[in-house]
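Q: Hi! First time asking for a complex rather than a single chain. Here are the components, and I think there are two in total. Is that enough to go on?
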Amino acid sequence: MHKILTLFKREYKAAVRTKSFIISLLLVPIMMGGGFAAVLIMENKVDTEDKHFTVIDRTGELQEYLRQSVDNRNSNDITHTRSGEQTDPAFVVDFVNYDEIDFEAQQLALSNRVKSAELYAYIEIGPGFIHGNGEESGAYLRYYSEHSFNDPFRGWFSNTLNKKAQLVRAAELNLDDEQTRHLTKWIGIEGMGLASVDKKTGEQQEAEKTNEAQSFLVPYVMMILMFMLVMMGAIPQLTAVMEEKNEKIAEVLLGSITPFQFMMGKVLGGIGVSLTTAAIYVAAAIFTLNYTGMQDLVPYDVLPWFFIFAVLFILMVGSGMAALGATCNDNKDAQSLTFPGILPAIIPMFLMMPIIQDPGGAFATTMSLIPIFTPTLMVVRMASTVTIPMWQPIVGLIGVILYTWFTVWMGARVFRTAILIQGQKPTLGTLLKYALKP
Amino acid sequence: MNIIELDGVSKTFGSVKAVNDLQLSVPKGSIYGFIGPNGSGKTTTIRMIMKIMYPDRGSIRINGREHDSRRLQNVGYLPEDRGLYKKMKLGELLQFHGELNEGVDLKNRIDYWLDRLDLKAYKEKKVETLSKGMRQKLQFIATILHQPEIVILDEPFGGLDPVNADLMKDVILELQQKGATIIFSTHDMSVAERMCDYIFMIYKGKKVLDGTLNEIQDQYGNDTIRIQSDLGAAALEGIKGIESVNNFGKIQEVRVSSGADPQTILADLLKQTRIMHFEITKPSLNDIFIRIASPESKEVSHA
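A: Yes, that's all I need. Here is the structure of the assembled complex.
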């Protein structure tokens, strides 16, 4: 153990004393913070240039209403109430009649005007929009633009025109405006958490409104942090071991330590580096959230699990990477082996959205109990707003411990043989041969 | 008392028998020289003694104890391929190696050895700033810093200038005087002749020589004549009883054919030239090495 700790100390010091470690430590939050800042800055830098629309109103009834609505919007809704600064573009709307003889030519002409930026979009109001039932009766609205799918103004026309259609239909049923408003009133459903009992006081805690940060941001950040720790602590083991093998440092050390001690010293060094990074980030996050009054977002009960899983995950991936590094002869070998080695860290990223959307579902539960995914996915589930039965992280942890023990054992067997062998290509067959060699 | 004993040790890589049924006994406190052509099995033997590799067959005992999976205590090992962490400072690197080998009083020892091998001024410098020779001395210090009982040096003089080679030689002899057993491999036969108590030669994985220099030379008898004459090598042309000539320019080393009389050779030579030096001697280690390892050689006497 003394020798492992000596090597660990060297590896740790060598890593954290480098400029690249300090730079990466600062750069990641700067980049992430910079990204958020850029979003905030860009949010206020919206395009306020007038947007020109042409409307083909095939109902013949909505022209005046739409003109008034646009005037109303331009007067009241596009400037900041206090500063008076324009925050949205004004709409300029003109109307053309439907070309019954050659609508296709009319469409092409309007499309060309959109393409040449003379128009922002043109809108076709179907003839049966107010009274029709189904598209074949002309009950449709069509918005033609370069990027209509995510066009920010499409919704305004849809809401404005549908509201008018509702009013017209209500009037035909002899309902007055008050009755119509009452009839069309829409109340959204609020997302709430669950009531609970305070463990200290024993008092019931009322259910609180959930928000995006709780349900998405916290699990997301935990996953990114876990990914970062593996990338910093485990993945570099491959090239580090390969370099030490090629520079003959390995043989010098193997005169004093066993291959297992060599591998473990290096992997523990990686764990040390990752935990230092994690401790700094987590402490900074807790401080910031407390300072900004968002301390409820800190998942204190998940943090111990996070650190336990992180250590095991780096040990699991790191010993595998070190073993693969011992089989490499050059950078080409290293490049071809990095991708399969990195998969346990990458695959959970692809599974992130379905897991975060339904952390308690069968898919999330099953995936989070597969040992190579458990460290990331179990933590993500635990950090979500869903209550995860306690047996699941415990079973997951047992699985991870067993699987990590297996990878360390297997890695050590490959490592001890491969570290002194030069010129042998690291194929699957070679790896198996090394692992199974008595 | 033998401190290292190899008994029937064999090691095979694929279809190549790197070491074949090797017997070796290294007496405590001796300097044992390993010689042999490149790829003959020297480094493999050393690696097996160091437990970096394990023999396929046979046993290795250190201090009477059978090899097991634990690292050897009290052994210092300098591999043929030097490998040092380039970004570490000399002092830190030696401290690291000293701790790995569980050395004590490291601070004082580091200062002593850096001073002894003329590296004191570089203590706070990084390894990458050192020349090749300096790195070799540094690695040598890392090998002996923990005062090992057995010191195994694979090509310790390779790449050193004569001054540093001499310094290294003095240190090795000093270690022996303090009781250490030294094993080193070398391609420099004169070093082996002058320094080693015992010489062991391995060729194609098999032991071909083992013993003191005198014992080895006795196996070959007094079949060598060193001659210095006015005509040089030209004087030897056509002389009967000469099997081969090794021409060193000013001196020629002649191997006498079996049954030939050196006095007859001398008489024949005097008819042709003036002789300044004529010495009947045993073959040098270099000559014996070449006899065994040269491509046309067939006289491998398995010791």
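A: The CA atoms of residues 323 and 411 of chain A lie 5 Å apart. Let me know if you'd like any chain examined more closely.
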